[in-house]
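Hi R.,

Here's the chain you asked about this morning:
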Amino acid sequence: MRQPHIGVRELKARLGRYLRIAGTGGTVTITSRGVPIGRIVPIGPGLDQRLAAMQAAGQTRWSGHKLKPAKPGAKTRGRRSVADLLVADRE
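And the predicted structure, written out as tokens:
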């Protein structure tokens, strides 16, 4: 199916029609004076569905456990924080 290009005026007049196209999986490009300015696209699957598909395809594995918090990668000597040292270095 060819992707329709429609002007803003036609979009206002027939919005329901173009929303139905997006609802069935189509994409509609919106133009202003012949120049593309936007696109109406269908909503893709949610995060849970995408993760389940990746697991089914063998692309990911998950034990079901939450990750432990990571330890800070940088430590400083003295009372100044890493953020303080960065600010001082940038000045």
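The longest strand covers residues 35-40.

Let me know if you need anything else.
M.
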